[in-house]
From TrEMBL:
Gene Ontology BP terms: L-methionine salvage from S-adenosylmethionine; nucleoside metabolic process
InterPro entries to which the protein is assigned, alphabetical: Nucleoside_phosphorylase_d, Nucleoside_phosphorylase_sf
Protein name: Nucleoside phosphorylase
Species per Swiss-Prot/TrEMBL record: Nocardia tenerifensis
Record's GO cellular component terms: cytosol
Length: 290
């Protein structure tokens, strides 16, 4: 089982386009997951959940999904704002490092950055890079999306609970100064990565499609369809990556044979002429035995 989390419904829908035979799985606390198999790959089962925006809920629901499904791999998939001009709308970023940019210390008139970062697991990094050979993941794109020839970048991203839509704000300057290796900015990846790391280092990866350039034009680009395109490209790459991994048993599958938690009983039966029968073992059910 692989768990894929998203922040937005448009991102979740983009992943679900690649699944069949989906059913709704409800967590005891009400969180809903869509569980299905990848089209053409019935052995690769995926649980998809939506967290909403922000690092806090991303962290909480990452742990909830991990405890519920015991996945072999976890992914966070969706859109991001690009921080480099060489990244086009619809290009995909595989986060090799997830920076949490909001930690720090305010001292006098200075803000001293105290970053935390999480790195991509080597196994997932290698699998993801292999997908890019001869654009092997393009099979999961629509014909129209393939024609645009989206690229895949392997690079760090910057994460915080702020919608970054400016290249001149104080936050934009801080990211350039202190996290200048980041090529994209988003709002959930650090919560997801932190929770996955605390869960005994569950292999985890953040995959993002570039939907804007964090330059004040986000709203107009979203209306023009860039968010949907970026979400679909990121989902296509994530599903291709999922299929490249060996399928794992579904830990949530129920055994077809019921088991009883009732204790066994041991009867000693006296036979004719005071001979004895050896122990008779069964399960007590409403005063009888099974």
């Amino acid at each position: 089982m692989i768990v894929i989390l998203t922040a937005l419904n448009v991102e979740q829908d983009a992943v679900l386009e690649h699944l069949v035979d989906t059913t709704v799985h409800e967590h005891a606390k009400g969180t809903l997951f869509d569980v299905g198999a990848v089209v053409g790959h019935p052995g690769h089962r995926v649980a998809v959940g939506v967290t909403g925006a922000g690092t806090t809920t991303a962290a909480a629901l990452t742990e909830r999904a991990r405890a519920e499904f015991s996945p072999s791999v976890m992914m966070f998939v969706g859109v991001a704002g690009g921080l480099r001009s060489e990244l086009g709308i619809g290009d995909v970023v595989v986060a090799t490092k997830v920076h949490s940019y909001q930690g720090g210390r305010s001292e006098g008139d200075e803000f001293l950055v105290r970053p935390r970062s999480w790195e991509l697991s080597h196994r997932l990094d290698q699998r993801a890079r292999r997908l890019c050979r001869k654009d092997g993941w393009y099979d999961w794109l629509s014909k129209h999306a393939r024609a645009a020839e989206p690229k895949v970048a392997f690079a760090p991203i910057a994460v915080g609970d702020v919608v970054l839509d400016s290249t001149t704000s104080e936050l934009a300057r801080r990211i350039r100064m202190s996290f200048n290796d980041a090529v994209a900015a988003e709002m959930e990846g650090s919560g997801f990565a932190h929770a996955a790391a605390l869960a005994d280092q569950v292999p985890a990866v953040v995959v993002r499609g570039i939907s804007d350039h964090a330059d004040g034009a986000k709203a107009s680009r979203d209306r023009a369809g860039s968010q949907l395109m970026a979400a679909r490209n990121a989902a296509a790459f994530a599903v291709a990556l999922a299929v490249s991994l060996e399928p794992q048993p579904d830990s949530t599958a129920q055994s077809p044979w019921p088991t009883s938690s009732l204790p066994p009983i041991y009867n000693t039966i006296t036979a004719r002429d005071h001979a004895t029968v050896d122990k008779q073992i069964g399960v007590q059910i409403n005063g009888g035995r099974k």
